[in-house]
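Objective 1b: paired records.
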Amino acid sequence: MIAHSAATENTVSGKACSDLARSVQELSVEQWGWKNAVTMVGLDDRLLEAQQKVLRFARSESPVLITGETGTGKELFAKALYLLGPRAGRPFLRINCAQYNDGNLIASELFGHKKGSFTGAVSDHRGIFEEAGGGVVFLDEIGELTPGAQAMLLRTLGEGEVVPVGGNCVRKVDVRVIAATSRDLRPMVQAGTFRADLFYRLRYLWVHVPCLRDRGADWDLLVRHYLDGLNARWSSRKQFSPEALARLGEYHWPGNVRELRSLVDMGFHLAEGATILPREFAEVLDPPGAAAPTDGGRPGSGGTETCFERMARGGENFWVVVHAPFMDRELSRSEVRQIVARGLRQTNGSYKRLIRLLGLEQDDYLKFMDFLRHHRLKPELTA
């Protein structure tokens, strides 16, 4: 028999979160119940610094931009901003901009539309900005917003107005906007795919959610928190073995907290006894079919030189030779910086020429630059 309650699954030990995080959880339970509690586990200084920004920014009415890799918990920070601010208790509505490829559809979801304004518009529709009157609109993955919707959003932020698609009647709205993105918007601004004026208006108040690999021992607190929740839910007493915890402590966590939670869940359910062993999640950390690295491709004595030559002369590309081994912890951060620095010396500091040297296409430029920035891999070049 399962003895389970959402309260026991979501409750955080006082040793695993800040006082602010506990206050946010209590506020979220009051508003949405234990099932939808906002749980922010961790005590690393970088996480606490981001939480303190949330506390200060919550009092403002200005837009907030939340950045961070996928799976870091940006939506939790958006909800914390809402719960700690004066609009708590009013609507909090979320929309994922990446779900809409059609410009009319995303504009309609945000700002509404008039009947007959485009195919499928069979009746008038109120957008999320009108529905959230007096509350907060959370725009997730705002980097995917279409150019037309970007222009309309800029008007809403500046004038507090919306014009439905296909309409000409201006409607006043009173909402606070919180936006989030896992992309670096700066190269998009440079490339002209994201409006500079919108970027600077959103980034006036900015919170960066640190990735899990930069949060010290927080991974251990998170593992224990999610495991405690599963044990409470299934009336179990399972624990990770010391070897399993050591293996997790070495992992790079490319999927951040979201990946950690799924890994704990998998290990819990695959374990045959009360001890969760490394084999329960070996497929995730060491996926089958991954190419075994050869001596020439490994870091170490001449390793970075060999990697560079494979790209510059051998016809292989950066994603295969550097990106994949780095994500699998076969190349260190300093070794990747060495490879990039060597290329930049040959291109006189030009990243656009560098990507050709590394076997990439020009279309890879933004993805390449995002990767370097997200993982702090840009080298400091000396004259």
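Objective 1b, second protein:
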Amino acid sequence: MTEAPLTPIEIGLTAAIVTMEGEEPAILVAGDGAKGETRAGLPFGPFDPLAHRTFEIGLRAWVEAQTGLAVGYVEQLYTFGDRGRHARPGDTGAHIVSIGYLALTRMPENLAALRATGAGFEPWYRFFPWEDWRQKRPDILDKVILPSLEDWARRPAKPAPTRALGRRERVRLCFALGGSPWDEEKVLDRYELIYEAGLVEEARRDGREAALARQTMPRLGEPMRFDHRRILATAIARLRAKLKYRPVIFELMAREFTLTELQRAVEPTGETSTATGGRPAALFRFRREVVQERPAPGLRLGARAS
């Protein structure tokens, strides 16, 4: 009996590098056109066990090679190994398992040098417009996403669902229906539902039945290479969670900032303290809504490491 040949496995490293551009969070995307792809993607490269002693060393090496950035702090995010995540039609090559990393930085001063490498920072709401609550509830939720998800949730699942919660319950919890609160950390859960319902281009590209059955696809943000939008969703969720328990307001601001900019980051509590010994002093606290979208810096862009 002839045994089937084993599928070779390769390890890749993917970086979600976040900064702030003005009042908007931005993500570093690598140049389009790699290996025939025309969509934006996160910087990624292979792990070479002969050249790289650790995953982190490998990550630093190819991020600098691709973008010219010398990575300082990085945080391992998750391991992404779903079958077909890098497959293309006719591709019979190795199965690629990618280890995702989250890196944080201030906006670099020399953007021209960065763009010369084919990389650049893009607003992350370009890829996730339904997550942009800075001004108000996004219109795209009520006009496009929720009607489509509710229609999908009413249809029987094929095959029978193995999840503890059904489609309707998942939609309710993830998208704050029926009195459920909006949880800004459920970025990945929301994207997974939208993907399962076949509402994003990645689902059609991956051959999802729900997407192939649609005559037209709604415009729900820009698609990304491979499963990079899923990796970015994971990074955004991680960052939003970290900002709830890590007071990083001074690190988040530019190296030089005005008093007005600092004042926008705090708010009065309405209470006073007599600990000063003089007249009661007003107490202030961090404005959480200011830092919800702002990362802590962990990647330095100055002199490169020697």
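The beta strands are 9-21, 24-29, 44-46, 74-80, 95-104, 120-123, 266-273, 281-286. Confidence is low (pLDDT under 50) at residues 247-253, 290-306.
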